[in-house]
Amino acid sequence: MKSVKVKAHANIALIKYWGKKDEKLFLPFNSSLSLTLDAFYTITDVKVIDGKSDVFYLDGKIQDEEETSKISKFIDRFRKLSNKDFCVRIDSKNHFPTAAGLASSASGFAALAGALNEIYETRLDKKHLSIMARKGSGSATRSLFGGFVEWKKGHDDLSSFAEKFDDANWDIGMIIVILNDKKKKVLSRAGMKQTVETCPFYPAWVEDAKKDLEDIKVAIKEQDLDKVGEIAEYSAMKMHATMMATRPSIIYMQPKSLEVINMVKELRHQGLSCYVTMDAGPNVKIITSSRFKDEIIDKLKNIIDKDKIIYSKVGTDLEILERVI
Ligand code: 2P0
Question: I need a labelling partner for 291 at 20 to 30 A (CA). Which of 92, 121, 234, 309 fits?
């Protein structure tokens, strides 16, 4: 029986993607740039089955019709491209809390796209696979690659894709502070739409993101942790400002998030290189390096359970773990 097992890592944007120009094609208003994380990943098994509909297991639980039909629509793209109409059973396991603002959809759709490319023998190269993954979830387009990854916004289906910008073969990593691993209230997709439609500052966000992207690319090439962190923090805080200035306002930050942010600022004042970024949830990610991480984690332990603090190094490209075709 044909089967494939694929691993893809999560990514955290340093220059954030927030808002779609085209909701059907998942074309973003601005280009983004992320760091792939080693400690958070999805492993997806896909097997050919005899049935007339796909079967979808997430973290060991069979998914209902609604969830399965979303995935089936994504699989249909591969069925159409390959002219093969067989159905599949998917077993996807997230090695981190789902929907906690840690972008499990990114590694999830990246792993799924990688597995479907094998099982349907569509032979898409990484660029075209990234275009496919994008249509599952925007941020998934970046999770096919390790290191620093740029998602070029493009202007149509074929020009919007991600590619590796830099291997990140230097001492940079992230401390993930998990403040809430429950499903979030306002999903990113709805939050983005509301921001585009009602935030009066949104055009400024789009315009400013261009410069942030150019600046961070220079900082990455210089392997300058402080510059990279400073620009990333700026991008994240601007994104949260646009979310807050919607009608009604969207506030992902919680009191604990602010406590961590203030602690990071204080540690920075004391000379440690550390900067925050946040996504569509209350969790805080601290951009730092192995040199500073222990000292930062020690401080964090005063206010957060130690099992909710995870240091991650840089993750690698999508990996095919097993392939029986
Ligand atoms: C990012 N986020 O760049 C931004 C920053 C959250 C905040 O991409 O609608 O799951 O599937 O394209 O990719 C999370 O949103 O949204 C996200 P869809 P996605 O990582």
Answer: 234
213 residue type, one letter: L
How far does residue 126's CA lie from ligand 1's centre (Å)?
20
Sorted by where each begins, the domain ranges of the chain are: 3-169+315-324, 173-311
Tens of pLDDT, residues 55-92 = 999 999 999 999 999 999 999 999 999 999 999 999 99
Beta strand residue intervals within the chain, DSSP E = 3-15, 20-22, 27-28, 32-49, 55-58, 61-62, 87-94, 148-152, 161-166, 173-177, 275-278, 284-288, 309-312, 319-324
Q: How far apart are CA 10 and CA 35, in angstroms?
A: 9
CA of residue 105 to ligand 1 center, whole Å: 8
Topology at the third CATH level for domain 3-169+315-324: Ribosomal Protein S5; domain 2 (3.30.230)
Q: Does domain 173-311 have CATH number 3.30.1330.60?
A: no
CA–centroid distance, residue 307 to ligand 1 (Å): 26
The best mutation among 139, 161, 183, 187 to test binding of ligand 1, ranked by most ligand atoms within 8 Å of the C-beta, falls on 139
Distance 251 CA to ligand 1 centre (A): 16
Average pLDDT over residues 273-297: 97
At residue 185 the predicted structure's pLDDT band, cuts being 50, 70 and 90, is: confident
Ligand 1 lining (C-beta closer than 6 Å): 13, 16-18, 26, 32, 103, 105, 137-139, 188-189, 279-280
